[in-house]
Amino acid sequence: MRKAKIVCTIGPASQSPAMLHRLIESGMNAARLNFSHGTHDSHARAIAAIRQAASHQGTAIAIIQDLQGPRIRVGVVAQEGIEVKAGQTVRLRTAWPPTADDRLLPSSPPEIPVTYPRLARDLRAGARVLINDGLIELVAERISDEVIDCSVLTGGTITSHKGINLPGTTVTVPAVTEKDRDDIRFGVEQGVDYLALSFVRGPHDIATARTLLEECGARIPIIAKIERAEAVAALEDILDCADGVMIARGDLGVEMGPEAVPILQKRIIVEANRWRRLVITATQMLESMTQAARPTRAEASDVANAVFDGSDAVMLSAETAVGAYPVEAVQVMDRLIRAAEDTTEPGVTVNAHPSGGKPSPAEAISMAAVSAAGSVRANAIVAFTESGTTARLISKHRPASPLLAFTPSDAIRRQMALYWGVRPFPMSQGGPPEAWLEEAEQRLAVEQLVRPGDVIAVVSGTMAGQVGGTNMLKLHEIRSLTSAHDESPTTSQTS
């Protein structure tokens, strides 16, 4: 069973029901919807299609709503773009004529519309302005109320809607924009499973999004995208309040330089695992497969290293959104992860809680379950969970045994589809722990995951419906799959 999970970005190349079925069959565990593109209607259709495909195949697929955030972009320019050369002067303008004809009028120096109205307020002379993932580099020279004159350091063709990065500049726009607020309300209505927050600068951005979710009556886990220097500086504070992080290596490399990304990737993964938070490694993992049916050797090593580093999940972006080989990209990713996992032992996280305090009962039981399962070479660890926390905590200790998690909540089951090593299953609501175990045994027998004589480690709470009530560990020998309630006389139990 593959442990690290695969996130696929859904776009024109992958949004059809037939293609979604193929992606799930090939190994997709979570679907990312990029709200920088598309409409609410198109996203609603995609969500419905993903849910239907997952239901048809009897599996749980998490849906990640990736917000646009305060993305700064080039406005509308002529279709052929604006060619700029090193040494040339260009003008960035934040106030732009409203008509299409006026937008395309030539000027000297060339004028480039920018979607961010506070650009002239935030920039200082000497600041760098990077366009299209840093392929074009400008430096600000003269700044007025609505105009920034820049010198071109690295030239190229500037086309409409390309992203703009401002390394070293503090952007004053809120991390959660009005568009993001509308999108969050839509996501709550649609029942998305995760919220990915773009251009996070610190814990206050996460608090803002969490407050809005609470106002909508929702408790959706928040993934903070680490793509700015401010987020790296505030990493521990972000991990303290976020449910997970995504290493957005594209913008992170533009902001801090490509040489910083491998080191930051390792650091962020280590810290996220220490804080028991979900961590996704993203951006350009198999980028060449947007046009080619096979990856480069460097890309294969990149995926493997993300697994070796301890990522919970790895993500495909353009490869599945607009690429020519979306299914093949997922299949290659699946093979690369399996090969990496087959050659290494799962890493065990630091046992100490990052705050220095004593572990919670759920944390202590989770640590004990992994240790006990390893000692007796248990065939599986079975976790019964109301909130998914128990499964996540066990997952963070990277058990060698398969981790099978049962929950009565469809939403929690979908969220657990993104946890490292977790295979989520549904279960009935209520009843005593003995009934849960009997139901789980029957389900595992149907799935051919256990046989008589196998030993499983069972983790649960003693009170049904009590969130955070995990307090029991049991080593259970499966005696008979037709009378699942029978227990071995040698069964041990701690609570």
Largest sheet: 8 strands, parallel, barrel
Return the CATH architecture of the largest domain: Alpha-Beta Barrel
Evaluate the radius of gyration.
25 Å
Global outline: elongated
* Strand content bin: 15-25%
Q: What's the CATH topology name of the largest domain?
A: TIM Barrel
Distance between the termini: 30 Å
Which percent bin holds the helix content? 25-40%
Look at the structure and name the CATH superfamily of the largest domain: Phosphoenolpyruvate-binding domains
Number of domains: 3
Unreliable spans: 98-105, 483-495
**What's the total count of β strands?**
23
Output the CATH class name of the largest domain. Answer: Alpha Beta
Describe what this molecule looks like in 3D:
- This protein folds into three domains: 5-69 and 175-342, Alpha-Beta Barrel (TIM Barrel), CATH 3.20.20.60; 72-165, M1 Pyruvate Kinase, Domain 3; 361-494, Pyruvate kinase, C-terminal domain (Pyruvate Kinase, Chain: A, domain 1, 3-Layer(aba) Sandwich), CATH 3.40.1380.20.
- The chain has 17 helices and 23 strands.
- It has helices at 17-26, 40-56, 100-103, 119-122, 178-190, 203-215, 229-233, 235-241, 249-256, 261-274, 297-309, 318-321, 326-342, 361-376, 389-396, 410-416, 433-446; strands at residues 5-9, 30-34, 62-66, 72-73, 82-84, 89-93, 111-113, 128-131, 136-143, 147-154, 156-158, 163-165, 194-197, 222-226, 244-248, 278-282, 313-316, 380-384, 403-407, 422-426, 455-461, 470-477, 492-494.
- An eight-stranded parallel beta barrel has the order 1-2-3-13-14-15-16-17, surrounded by eight helices. It has a seven-stranded mixed β-sheet with strand order 4-12-8-9-10-6-7, with helices on one face. A six-stranded mixed β-sheet has the order 20-19-18-21-22-23, sandwiched between helices.
- The chain is elongated and about 85 Å long.
- The two termini are 30 Å apart.
- Mean pLDDT is 89; it is low at 98-105 and 483-495.
